[in-house]
């Protein structure tokens, strides 16, 4: 049997905190990369709360050809997620060894035939999945996501430690939901209290600092896509530089 090709290097979208916009940002980053011609894959590493089917509007299940998983393709992005395998109406209960096996299969047994980079949507927390991703992938960089509030800061700081300990290069710190545009005037204002983004950026001063607005989230013309463009270009530039270190 032919050996599987090596996995593409990864951009991991990371935050210890839940609900801060990791999946939204991961999907927009993947679309943005594909839109500028980078061959992109998307791994949904959130096995318990996968969002890829919803974010990319996919209803079909993943096909298997030979012993390999064929990723779904949307917006020129190859996508693998447990939301494209399991029954969407059942809770996803993966226990320890099974969870590791499922993630390994999604990663290693998917035919990433058109991907030069893998955008990885991480679950919240600092547990086994995070450890596994850091050990199984080569890291192009991490995108650390927070919202402005202090409550995010505590969790994101803890998870930042994990990236520092693993020597993962951080490409950008993203403060999501940092502003809202007034629909009837030219001003924008902060909808949430706090400046967690700046505090997280102080941990990774060499990373870019991106502040994202609240947005109606309407696909490519979305303000998020525009605000993420410099990050997308930075990832594309980084992809030209070799060699890469393990995550
Ligand atoms: N900039 C934004 N503007 C408006 N809504 C947003 C924005 N970012 C995220 N959201 C919304 O906030 C909610 C949480 O976003 P998302 O699912 O991407 O977060 P997450 O960090 O991946 O969550 P989880 O930890 O549960 O995986 C979603 O309803 C999403 O549509
Ligand atoms: Mg998510």
- Tell me what the CATH architecture is: 3-Layer(aba) Sandwich
Helical fraction: 25-40%
Structure class? alpha/beta
- How many beta strands in the DSSP annotation? 11
The main pleated sheet reads as: 9 strands, mixed
Low-confidence stretches: none
How would you state the average pLDDT, rounded?
90
For this structure, what is the CATH class? Alpha Beta
**Whole-number total of structural domains:** 1
Cofactors, ions, other ligands: adenosine-5'-triphosphate, magnesium ion
- Morphology: globular
* Share in β-strands: 15-25%
Helix and strand pattern: EHEHEEEEHEHEHEEHEH
What is the CATH homology-level superfamily?
A: P-loop containing nucleotide triphosphate hydrolases
Number of helices: 7
C-alpha Rg (nearest Å) = 17 Å
Features:
247 residues; alpha/beta; Rossmann fold; nine-stranded mixed sheet; 7 helices; 11 strands; 23% strand; globular; binds adenosine-5'-triphosphate; binds magnesium ion
Question: Which helices and strands, and how do they pair?
Answer:
Elements: E1 10-14, H1 22-35, E2 40-44, H2 52-56, E3 63-65, E4 68-70, E5 72-74, E6 77-80, H3 96-108, E7 117-121, H4 128-136, E8 139-146, H5 150-165, E9 170-181, E10 188-189, H6 196-203, E11 208-213, H7 223-240
Parallel strand pairs: 1-7, 1-8, 2-6, 2-7, 8-9, 9-11
Antiparallel strand pairs: 3-4, 5-6, 9-10
Helix pairs in contact: 1-7, 3-4, 5-6
The structure holds adenosine-5'-triphosphate and magnesium ion (MG).
Residues 18-24, 46, 49, 51, 124, 176-177, 212, 214-215, 217, 224 line the site of adenosine-5'-triphosphate.
């Amino acid at each position: 049997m032919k050996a599987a090709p090596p996995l593409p290097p990864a951009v991991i979208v990371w935050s210890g905190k839940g609900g801060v916009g990791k999946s939204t940002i991961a999907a927009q980053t993947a679309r943005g990369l594909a839109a500028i011609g980078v061959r992109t894959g998307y791994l949904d590493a959130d096995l318990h709360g996968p969002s890829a089917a919803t974010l990319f509007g996919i209803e079909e299940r993943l096909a298997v050809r030979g012993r390999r998983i064929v990723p779904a393709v949307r917006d020129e992005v190859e996508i693998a997620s447990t939301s494209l395998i399991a029954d969407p109406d059942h809770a996803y209960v993966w226990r320890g060894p099974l969870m590791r096996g499922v993630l390994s299969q999604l990663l290693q047994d998917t035919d990433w035939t058109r991907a030069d980079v893998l955008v990885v949507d991480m679950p919240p927390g600092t547990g086994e999945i995070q450890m596994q991703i850091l050990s199984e992938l080569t890291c192009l960089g991490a995108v650390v996501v927070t919202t402005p509030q202090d409550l995010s800061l505590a969790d994101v700081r803890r998870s930042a430690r994990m990236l520092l300990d693993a020597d993962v290069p951080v490409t950008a710190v993203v403060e999501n939901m940092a502003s809202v545009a007034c629909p009837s005037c030219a001003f924008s204002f902060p909808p949430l209290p706090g400046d967690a983004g700046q505090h997280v950026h102080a941990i990774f001063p060499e990373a870019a600092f991106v502040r994202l607005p609240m947005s109606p989230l309407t696909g490519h013309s979305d303000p998020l896509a525009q605000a993420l463009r410099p990050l997308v270009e930075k990832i594309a530039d980084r992809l030209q530089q070799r060699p890469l270190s393990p995550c």
